[in-house]
């Protein structure tokens, strides 16, 4: 774990830099709050309705697909590292897994989960 | 007092001090490079449009980034009344910090004086770390869009999140094919595996897909849908001003440099000279690394000047229906070839 310590320290330094940058304008500039300034931006209009509205379900679908495929990528990393050490049996086991995944991918393609019009 | 001196000269304290020194030696040039990337972007875009770009602040407009930083510093940092204040202020930090700490694992090549490798954290999972950290900034963008409590930021953030995760899958698969070629996830070992031939030659299709994917991952033109000025005004950062806005800007541009460096490491041999012969080897490794980063960055700027913006359905179609199957096929081809012929590993 020794080699991970500089990363932790780097994260601390980065956070410190960001906090300083956030603090500078708060310290040097006077805050003059007015109602119009604090209101939500909507191209010069009063806000029509709340922004907390439902959004397209396809964004949610993309997130779910992403989880499936990213898990697959995470699953492939150890296999890719060990490919020289495992026999062809190991190679074809992963191919079988990829074929099953491709069947699912083809299904969702045909179902129209990837369509955006 | 002697106690203090004893405390400051313990091996731990010296280790801490040198590590901090190295961190600043990396972070400050990265921040400077980011400042001048904004200048270079405007200059390159200007020249491609047959304009001059920034001209008036300093010689060749070279002081323009500093003037911009000072201007943003003296803006009023108000928080919109409807916003969720804590999340609103944390979001820029969440974008800025991950893009900066990605530089903790960058290999800068052998030190020209001592010959040892200059790398702050030589971890074996370097590739995985870069992939993970570069995708963390999507949280900051979603936080910004949600906490602004306003329509345009919200839509921009949702678009941006969907776009970034879509291209991350094919990016992961392309990176896997490079790992197969190099036989290691350590960034330095991946570079050393390219001593015979840079991976851009055996893996040229993967290189092309990777460069296009990093454009999408960094929300750059032609994939700058989240910031589509014409429809969403500026996307997730509409409600931001002053330094919080500058942090988003910093985060995005540092991410551009990081992804260019990642491309240089994976495909262009990182700090290796183009040929292992005399005039090239005289130039220290980190100069080559910077030059390669510059080339990839220029391609990114060039794309912005040349290509029209994608529509959202085209973007998703390219990500899921073209890049995902293509990178999967490329991975299987690479795996078969590596299994039959062996890899380039050292």
Strands, helices and their partners?
The complex is a heterodimer of chains A (117) and B (346).
Chain A: H1 5-28, H2 35-38, H3 57-82, H4 88-111
Chain B: H1 2-8, H2 11-48, H3 64-73, H4 85-101, H5 126-147, H6 151-182, H7 187-192, H8 204-217, H9 229-232, H10 242-267, H11 278-281, H12 285-306, H13 312-341
Helix pairs in contact in B: 2-10, 2-12, 3-10, 4-5, 4-10, 5-6, 6-8, 6-13, 8-10, 8-13, 10-12
Relevant terms:
heterodimer, A: 117 residues, mainly alpha, Methane Monooxygenase Hydroxylase, Chain G, domain 1, 4 helices, 67% helix, flat, B: 346 residues
Task: State the gist of this model.
The complex is a heterodimer of chains A (117) and B (346). Chain A contains 4 helices and no strands. With 117 residues, chain A is mainly alpha-helical.
The level-1 CATH class of chain A: Mainly Alpha
The SSE string of chain A, one letter per element, is HHHH
Strand content of chain A: under 5%
Largest sheet of chain B, in brief, is:
none
Total strands of chain A: the figure is: 0
The CA-CA distance between the termini of chain A, in Å, is 49 Å
Task: Report Rg of chain A.
Answer: 25 Å
Biggest chain-to-chain interface with counts: A-B, 62 and 83 residues
Mean pLDDT of chain A: 83
Give me the number of helical elements of chain A.
4
Task: State the helicity of chain B in percent bands.
Answer: 55-70%
- Find the CATH superfamily of chain A: NADH:ubiquinone/plastoquinone oxidoreductase, chain 3
Q: Could you tell me how far the N terminus lies from the C terminus of chain B, measured between alpha carbons in angstroms? A: 51 Å
What's the CATH architecture name of chain A?
Up-down Bundle
Strand content of chain B: under 5%
Indicate the radius of gyration of chain B in whole angstroms. Answer: 21 Å
What does this structure look like?
The complex is a heterodimer of chains A (117) and B (346). With 117 residues, chain A is mostly helical. Chain A has a single domain, classed as Up-down Bundle (Methane Monooxygenase Hydroxylase, Chain G, domain 1), CATH 1.20.58. Chain A has helices at residues 5-28, 35-38, 57-82, 88-111. The model of chain A has no long low-confidence stretch (mean pLDDT 83). Chain B is built from 13 helices and no strands. The N and C termini of chain B lie far apart (51 Å). At the A-B interface, helix 1, helix 2, helix 3 and helix 4 of A face helix 2, helix 4, helix 6, helix 10 and helix 13 of B.
């Amino acid at each position: 774990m020794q080699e991970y310590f500089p990363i932790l320290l780097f994260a601390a330094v980065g956070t410190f830099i960001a906090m300083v940058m956030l603090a500078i304008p708060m310290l040097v500039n006077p805050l003059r709050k007015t109602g119009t300034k604090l209101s939500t931006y909507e191209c010069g209009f009063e806000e029509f309705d709340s922004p907390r509205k439902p959004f397209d379900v396809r964004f949610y679908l993309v997130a779910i697909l992403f989880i499936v495929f990213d898990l697959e990528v995470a699953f492939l990393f150890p296999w890719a590292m060990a490919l020289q050490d495992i026999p062809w049996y190991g190679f074809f086991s992963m191919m079988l897994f990829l074929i099953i995944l491709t069947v699912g991918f083809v299904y969702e393609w045909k179902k129209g989960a990837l369509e955006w019009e | 007092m002697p106690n203090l001196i004893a405390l400051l000269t313990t091996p731990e304290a010296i280790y801490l001090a040198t590590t901090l020194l190295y961190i600043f030696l990396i972070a400050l040039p990265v921040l400077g490079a980011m400042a001048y990337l904004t200048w270079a972007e405007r200059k390159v875009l200007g020249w491609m449009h047959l304009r001059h770009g920034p001209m008036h602040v300093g010689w060749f407009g070279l002081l323009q980034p500093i003037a911009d930083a000072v201007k943003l510093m003296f803006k009023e940092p108000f928080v919109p009344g409807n916003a969720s204040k804590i999340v609103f202020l944390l979001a820029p930090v969440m974008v800025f910090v991950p893009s900066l700490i990605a530089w903790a694992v960058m290999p800068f090549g052998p030190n020209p004086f001592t010959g040892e490798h200059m790398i702050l954290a030589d971890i074996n999972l370097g590739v995985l770390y870069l992939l993970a950290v570069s995708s963390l900034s999507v949280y900051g963008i979603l936080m910004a869009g949600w906490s602004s409590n306003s329509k345009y930021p919200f839509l921009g953030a949702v678009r941006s999140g969907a776009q970034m995760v879509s291209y991350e899958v094919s990016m992961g698969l392309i990176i896997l094919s490079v790992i197969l070629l190099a036989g290691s996830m350590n960034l330095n070992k991946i570079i050393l595996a390219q001593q015979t031939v840079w991976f851009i030659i055996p893996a040229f299709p993967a290189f092309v897909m990777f460069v296009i994917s990093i454009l999408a991952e960094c929300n750059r033109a032609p994939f700058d849908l989240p910031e589509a000025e014409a429809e969403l005004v500026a996307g997730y950062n509409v409600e931001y001003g002053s330094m919080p806005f500058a942090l988003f800007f910093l985060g995005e541009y540092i991410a551009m440099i990081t992804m260019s460096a990642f491309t240089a490491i994976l495909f262009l041999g990182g700090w290796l000279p183009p040929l292992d012969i005399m005039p090239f080897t005289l130039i220290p490794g980190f100069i080559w690394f910077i030059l390669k980063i510059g080339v990839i960055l220029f391609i990114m700027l060039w794309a912005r000047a040349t290509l029209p913006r994608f529509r959202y359905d085209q973007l998703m179609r390219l990500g899921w229906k073209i890049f995902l199957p293509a990178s999967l096929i490329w991975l299987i081809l690479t795996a078969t070839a590596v299994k039959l012929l062996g890899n380039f590993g050292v």
